[in-house]
Amino acid sequence: MSAETPIRFGILGCAEIARKLSRAITLAPNATLYAVGSRSIDKAAGFAKANNFPPGAKIYGSYDAVLDDPDVDAVYVPLPTSLHIKWAVLAAQKKKHILLEKPVALNVAEFDKIVEACESHGVQLMDGTMWMHHPRTAKMWEFLSDTHRFGQLRNIHTCFTFAADPDFLKNDIRVKPDLDAHGALGDAGWYCIRAILWANNYELPKTVVALRNPIVNEAGVILSCGASLHWEDGKVGTFHCSFLSSLTMDIAAIGTKGTLHVSGFVIPHREKEASFSTASETGFDDLVTCWVPPPSDHIVTTDLPQEALMVTEFSRLVGIVKNGSKPEKKWPILSRKTQLVIDAVKASMDKGFELVHIE
């Protein structure tokens, strides 16, 4: 395969998030929209037309038909979480590389079966955590890993909330127990947990405790919750996620010498620029009226939005595998660690907010 051959994507289903990914695939220099499948061929055709699929793109009336198309290199799977294990395993068996929406599964045992299928059939797996691919993320990590400016991480708090409208709270798949049983924890909480792990260089916490009084709907699906994560060396991470509060996506990471603050970490305030602030060895002036030195603001620009950068990186890895290399294992490992913490938070809730150990 030449470097110029774009990776041909098939999309399974016409979920709302698939609109964003269709645009991302169009923008990515090494990917192309090739096929879409829905349970209704009319819906698939309408989706392709509305999302600028190229002329000649394949329109299918089933997910199986996309997987059976020999020219599809990779599939994007934005289906409800309860369907991930079935369709991701099938995709791997058909030797399709998989870009899988988060949360990756209902639990880590399911995800392990997906990983096993991907490894058995030599396909690349990556989850859809877009902010990981924004150049701001690498810049923020430069600060966090600088022992002179940031020191050692001691505490991190993350938050992702948005005020869902009544229709969402009644009809969205994320509030249906048979489709996305983890609700806000699986949706918004995934990003919060990933950010905490990222700041800890992906070292898993030893214990997790869910915070009391989560809000659940009539079906028992989580609408708002939080938890604290604890490491053996005393580091603490906390997060809050909710469908019931004003839009907020924040990270506050506190080290022994410095602090990182980020607003809009999941989705930047502006598509082509993202900001964060850092403070290092800061104190007060003589009269304690201001910070000295004040925190510094940093702006990171990008020509391609983060979702297109994600597709670009995924397609690059797929291209390498098509040329005979092994799939990159980093991404499934990060997905599994995030899922492990989600499972532990849920287990703590189910056990009356007890401490849960992560092995």
From TrEMBL:
Extract the InterPro entries matched here: Gfo/Idh/MocA-like_OxRdtase_N (IPR000683), GFO_IDH_MocA-like_dom (IPR055170), NAD(P)-bd_dom_sf (IPR036291)
- Leader sequence range is none
Domain Gfo/Idh/MocA-like oxidoreductase N-terminal: where? 7-126
What SUPFAM superfamilies does this protein's entry cite? Glyceraldehyde-3-phosphate dehydrogenase-like, C-terminal domain, NAD(P)-binding Rossmann-fold domains
- Span of domain GFO/IDH/MocA-like oxidoreductase: 146-260
Family from the record:
Belongs to the Gfo/Idh/MocA family.
Report the protein name in the record. Gfo/Idh/MocA-like oxidoreductase N-terminal domain-containing protein
Q: What is the lineage of its organism?
A: Eukaryota, Viridiplantae, Streptophyta, Embryophyta, Tracheophyta
